[in-house]
Structures are given as C-alpha cells and as structure tokens.
C-alpha cells in the first residue's frame, strides 16, 4: 500500500477519531475482473480494516437492474464509460469526492475529464482501466501476420473464425470493417450485409477468455476478436497467439469505478477505489494479465516488455482506436434485433 | 430371419445403445485424469485436477450448497408428498381427479418456463433470488415425483389393515405411524432419494433462481463452461455423476424398478 | 360423494394432509405462472418506481418479427427430430429388454440403461463437448481406426445438438416403452404365432398398437423439454445454436427484457399445451 494511502488512513483515523470504523463494503463487478483478486482484497483489508464482499453481474443490463432495484446494497460498482451517463441520469450514482482519491492526480486529463464520466462539472466514474477490442490470430495458421480486419471474411479461413455473441460488439466490428464511425453508424444496410457475409465464416461464438483459449488451443480457430487485456493473459499462458490492432481500427473502451448514490459507506468505497487505481495494485495485477491502467503513473511502472506497454503505448495504434460512447436505447434495440435476426437465420 | 437371430441382433443393438449411453461419461471421467488443460491427447495420467478441486473453494462451496439444498428439499418434499399421497389414498372426494392432474405441470411444462416464471414471481414478492428461492423451486419440482412413487407403493397396501387398527381403538396418528408408514417405508425412501437426485441435478430452475457467486453446483459448472473453466470442472462433473448414480442405485433397491422379478 | 368418505379420519385430516403439498405447488408453480402472464402484458416491470402500462406489444413483437416465429419453428422441428430418433432407437431396446431377456439380467440391464438418466444432464452434455470437438476423442479415435484421414468435427453443428439431446432423453422412451411392453401378455403373442401370423404382422398389428400409449408417453416426455431447450444448443451448437429457448433465456439473463421473455414463454407454453391436448386421448389409455 502506498505511503499516501497509509497517511490518508491514519489522518482519517485521527481526524475522525472513531469515525473510521471497519466497514464491510459490497463491490459489484464482472467476475474475475481485478477487484476480487484475493491478494488485492486481503491487502486492502489489512491496511484499512474494511472487508470486501463481491457480487457479480453477467451483463451491463443486469448491472443497471441491480442498481435500480437494490438501493443501499452496493458501495462500489464498475460501470463502462458508455453506460455511466445513463446511470448518472437515472440518479443511480453519486459524484466522486476527488479529495478522497489521492491517486486521481496521476490520471491524465484526457481520461479524468472524459465527457462520459463527467456531468455538470462533477466526476461520476473514476477512470480505472481501458483497453481495446480488436483481434488475435493463431500464429500456427498464418505465415505472415495479418494486418487487416478483412481476414475474417477471407474464404481461406471459412469456419475457423469467431466473434463474441454480443449485438453491440458485432455491429461495431462491422462498422469498423465498413469504415464507419462506431458511435454514429449511418449505413445500417452495409452493416447488415457485412455481417451476413461474416456469419458462414463463424465456427462458434466465444463468451469468455477461457472459451477463447480452449478453441485456440484445440486448433479450431484461426482468428477471433478479443480484448487486449485478455490477450495479454493468453499470451502469458503460452498460447501461440498474437494480438493485432488492424489498420481499419479497433473499438476502445474505458471502465470506471463509481459509487452508488444510495451507498452508506462512501468513505470506505472511496478508499477501495483509490487502492484500485494505485500503481502497486496495478503492476501486480498486470503480471497476471490486465487491461491498461488509466493511471499514467501505474502504466509507467510496467516493465518494458509488458504487453500493454508495447501494444497500447504506441501512439500510431492509439490513433486508430475509436472509443465507445453511449448508445441510445433505440439504437441498442435495433442492433439487438439485427443480431437476433442474423443468428436465427443460421 | 429366424427368431434366434433376431433376438441376437436385438441384444447387439441394446449393447450398442449402452455403449452410446456410457461412452461420453467414461471419456469425461478419463479426461479428468488427463494432464492436458485443453483436453489434448496423448493421455498423461494425473490426479492434479482432483487435487486442485479440493483446493477450489468456489466449487466446494457450491457443492456443499447443492448438497445442503438437496437435503432440505428432500425432507420437505418427502414429508409433504407422503402426506398428500396418504390423503389421496384414504379419501374419496370430488375434484380428486383434478388434483391428480394438477401434479403434472411441473413435469409437463418446459423447465425454462417454470424457472423464469418463478424468477419473476419471487422477484415480485420480494423473495428474490438465492438459496431460499432455489429451495422453494426444487421442492415444487420434486413433489410430483415423490407423490407418484409413494402412491405406487400405497397401491400395494391393503386399506383394511388401517381399518382394522382403527376398529381396535388406535387413533389416527398411531394408525399411520405403526401400520401404514412401516409398509410404505420403501416407497418413502425411494421418493426421498428421487427428490434428492432431482434437486442435486437440477439445473434449469436453479440457473434462474441463483445469485451469481452464490449458486448451486450445476449452475457453477454451466457458468464455467460458458465463461471459462479448468479441468477441475471435469473432475467435479465426474464426481457428481458417480454420486448421482450411486444414489439412484440405492433408490432402485428400495423401489420396484424393474417391474416384476 | 360430497364431504368425502374416508377409510378412517375426518375432513380436517384430509385437509391437513393434502394442503401443504398443494399450497406449495400453488405458491411455487401456479402463482408464478399467473405472474408471468401478468408480466407479459406490461411494458416495464413494475418495480423500483418504474413507469409501466398494460400493453400487447410483447405479443405483437412475436407476430411482427419473423425472427421469433422462425426460431419457434426451429425448436419445434428439433423437438420432432429428437423425438423420432429416440423412438426409433429406443423402442427396439425396450422390446429386447422386455421380451428377449429374462430374470436378473433383465433387471440389471434395465438399471444400467436408466442410470445415466438420473445423472446430471448438464454434465453429460459437457461430456459430449469433449468427445465431439476437433482433435477430440472421436476425431482421433476414428483416425486411429480408419485407414484414411477423416476430419470429424461434429462440434457446433445441428448434429451435435441432436446427438446430445438424444443421449439425454433416450432413457425416457425406453422406460415408458418398457413398462408398456411388459404389460403385454406373452400368451397373446404365442397365440398369434400359433395362428400363423408372421413376425412383421405380430409387430405391426399386435405389439405396436398395444404399446402405443407407452410410446406416446415417452414421446411427450421428450418433446416438451426439447422444445424449450437452451442449454444443449448453447453448449453444442455454436453458431447454429440459436433456438427459441436460447432467445427466451437471453431475455431473462442478458438483455433483461423480462416482459418480452414472459410473452415468448407463454407462446411456447400455448404450443406445448396444444400438442399435449392432441396427444392426451392416447395418454389416458396409457394410464389405464
């Protein structure tokens, strides 16, 4: 734990003189996504005395429903920046008290002032991790590394391609392939045509990292869309795969940690968030494979050959990335209808 | 074709079907001892996954929860089901046939619909998801089976025995306890074992009624298959199959499964 | 008779014995189904202060988008295929068990056939995933046996889904057929044979009609769950694994559109009940 945090905790203890009691905070996140690492939680409890209990969700919709229907049940929640505006508008999350998060100072301005994480001059989600959704390929299936997204439509790889079963991801993937702005898709017909051509190429959809790993290891796939953080883990575990940010671009996403409006343990919640963006936590997490940290200092602290440094530190790469913005309910329903229609036709 | 040859062909067919039924289970069991985490052959023997299983708190917790839920379900379903069977056996009344038919929905309706309906209803009445909801669901699914099994056993019970006991002055509960229950005990035990198996193996309803991170073993396995798993899942799956089959073997001893001897 | 005759015991006793079970069933099955019906008719779930109103929109969605009807038909077709395969494969097994094997061996074999049925269906599907995948046991096994190269990658095809489902539900039809066949008096068959009837005639005109109720019961026990199946298509089907059941599952678990999910479920329920109604005259004979 950084000295800062110890000082902060000590000061708070002295100033509060008993106001800082050991609290139990509840964290709502994807399962296995950093906040529930045993060693991280133990370190936090040791330093602050607060205990951490986790609850998980399997989709953003589930996360929102849980927030809506369980006031007071959660103290920290992971919200993808594309969803933060919706959560904020519904009054589900509270403004972040920046004073309580020391490490916030090291988060570069472009992230800290991200338009989706801020509203009315207040910060509603602390930038935590970011990454790309691009693709990875099986190095044993290619002589030369592919550089374009068109490899997915290459008949040489028919039946050996995979994407995630997610309407938004599929539509945005096709948007990149048809040269459109993922946040302002004008030509849905082109998207539909592109995806219709893609479907016969797909062997199966992958739903998780290990799914992905299994298929690659079994030699069933040549190329599949993938997340940058997961790619670093798969490579670290020895799979013969390589991550590619294609020339057409990739989808970028930013995850933020927010505090529900109804939480009664805001101090402890802020302390936990501060630990999560702390370089000490991040570097250890990145050893096992993690998305990129929003904390510039944490990113700097990575070893030279770390995946995230190599791939995501390259400004040319980052220039090709289109970051996700919120999607309107209408659009989301349209994408879902399209995706269901395509899947049903198989 | 002669009758003898037909009979032999038939037995060969039966044998093939048995192979079909057991082959994947044996393969899975074999793979649980294979060293490759990605199910690659060649085969390398190891008990590594079983060791890892004994250290995997998440899976062990889910297994314990499954067993616990199954035991509670068994007790409740057996008591309620036996009582209902006794009532249906002893009394004649209008609407009895309707009541009999009402036992079928849990079996006749796809579990997907039952499961989601329970999810929605429990959510509405504030019970939500979680272990109590799962137990309520499991008991409802097991009840018809218990009633069917106990009723079948009751069909072999001579009602005049009860009458005789009553005539001799025994009160209602005494009659039940000392005359009826001992006779139908094998049926009750079989029903209880059915209830246990149904609850322990239940997936669909548990899937909808479980909280993520707080679910039963089959749901954990499904989530693991969908979201990523290690061969420990293989190991625990093999163990589940062995346990379920053992339970059913015992149940078969108590209930007259194979028809007449 | 109103008031009930009892073999001993009072009305109160009847109610005391009967009500707990049926109250439980009411609370756990019938009330939820009614609640589902209610939810299928609203725009939003009436929780957490959301605004909601009655609407037929969810049902209309089914009729307006061909997607759902297509998938419903896909699921019904899957149900029919699996049922027919199970009947064709299972009936001969049941016949052999009931007629050609006697005594201890019969009991033991019957138990062997029924046992997998009582093990966890999810785990059995999972075991098929291991057998059927590329570089899996089936692939390598066949390649070891056959002289030529064969790429058996059945995984993620409709065949895989059918195999998995047949494997799960075969014991149902064997069980019901066996029980029905067992009840056929051997003397009948002997009498027919002594009157000169050929094997085919005996099968067609004697055995099948008499065991039909058992077959129909088995068919129903298979068709109903398969039509609502989602777990097997998801695990074994890959790209082709989208069925009516998976779409309903999505509504409750991923998309969180519960009213639509409820409406789709009820439409499925209507189809299933319709088929059950058509089959029930034959089922009643099975119970007799």
Overview of this structure, please?
The complex is a heterotrimer of chains A (346), B (261) and C (288). With 346 residues, chain A is of the alpha/beta class. Chain A has 2 domains: 3-130 and 254-305, Periplasmic binding protein-like II (D-Maltodextrin-Binding Protein, domain 2), CATH 3.40.190.10; 131-251 and 320-344, D-Maltodextrin-Binding Protein, domain 2 (3-Layer(aba) Sandwich), CATH 3.40.190.10. Helix content of chain A is 40%, strand content 18%. Chain A is built from 15 helices and 13 strands. Chain A has helices at 3-16, 38-48, 60-69, 84-89, 109-112, 167-177, 188-198, 209-217, 228-236, 266-276, 279-288, 296-300, 307-312, 315-319, 329-344, and strands spanning 24-29, 51-56, 76-80, 93-94, 118-119, 122-123, 126-138, 161-162, 223-227, 241-244, 250-260, 292-293, 321-323. In chain A, helix 6 crosses helix 7 (188-198). Chain A is globular, with a radius of gyration of 21 Å. The termini of chain A are far apart. Chain B is an all-alpha fold and 261 residues long. Chain B is 77% helix and 1% strand. In chain B, helix 3 packs across helix 7, helix 3 (57-90) runs antiparallel to helix 9 (172-201) and helix 9 (172-201) packs antiparallel against helix 12. Residues 257-261 of chain B have low confidence and may be disordered. In chain C, helix 2 crosses helix 3 and helix 5 (121-132) runs parallel beside helix 10. Chain C has 12 helices and 1 strand; from the N terminus they run βαααααααααααα. The model of chain C is unreliable at 1-5 (pLDDT under 50). Chains in contact: A-B, A-C, B-C. Chains B and C meet through helix 1, helix 3, strand 1, helix 5 and helix 6 of B and strand 1, helix 1, helix 3, helix 4 and helix 5 of C. Strand 1 of chain B pairs antiparallel with strand 1 (5-6) of chain C.
